[in-house]
Amino acid sequence: MNFWEYLGNRHQQLLIDTYQHASVVFQCMVAATAIGVLIGVATYRSDWAGSLATTTTSTLLTIPSLAMIGLLIPIVGLGVPPTVIALTLYGLLPIVRNSIVGLRGVDPALVDAATGIGMSRVARLARVELPLAWPPILTGIRVSTQMLMGIAAIAAYASGPGLGNLIFRGIASLGSSNALNQVLAGTLLIILLALLFDAGYVLIGRLTISRGIRA
């Protein structure tokens, strides 16, 4: 069968795989964003702490995805756990780095003004520094999401959810009638998800970043 017939016959399974892929990336990005921003907040005031955080997350990103998942399998088993842990770790670097850069880039005069009107450190962080640092943080989230869309496909190696299973099945059965259709469908759907997520982030940016900051 041709590619379009394959899509028509397998659309239900394709939708399930697409949903699982989007779901695992979204959940891992929520976790990576929370952890990454917390690390940024904890380290941006210190040069050595910021460098340590950036270096550590950079080192994690240099570990090949297959090796990372393979190392996690004996510890947490197959399926969702190694997928979530690996994707969350891989998503940290852009968020940590951009959180530190964004927070350090806040105008000290604005922080001093907030201090002068009696804001506590937590209030300054929540109401002044983080909102002003949000544009670079959002950029880091967008970069991480694009990376994780592709890396999530490797999770099929550990029986993880998502479109990677479709790609792996196609590669394993090269020469069969539907092998190329499986690989092509999985790849195109991952690209489509990446574009949809990025469009969502553009919308979030328009809704959460004031025009003055965008300018």
Automatic annotation (TrEMBL):
PROSITE patterns: ABC_TM1 (PS50928). It is a multi-pass membrane protein. It holds the Pfam family BPD_transp_1. InterPro entries: ABC_transp_perm/SBD, MetI-like, MetI-like_sf. Keywords: Membrane, Transmembrane, Transmembrane helix, Transport. Its main location: membrane. It comes from the Bacteria. Residues 18-201 form the ABC transmembrane type-1 domain. It is found in: Cell membrane; Membrane. Coiled coil: none annotated. The chain crosses the membrane at residues 21-45, 65-93, 148-171, 183-204. Belongs to the binding-protein-dependent transport system permease family. This is ABC transporter permease.
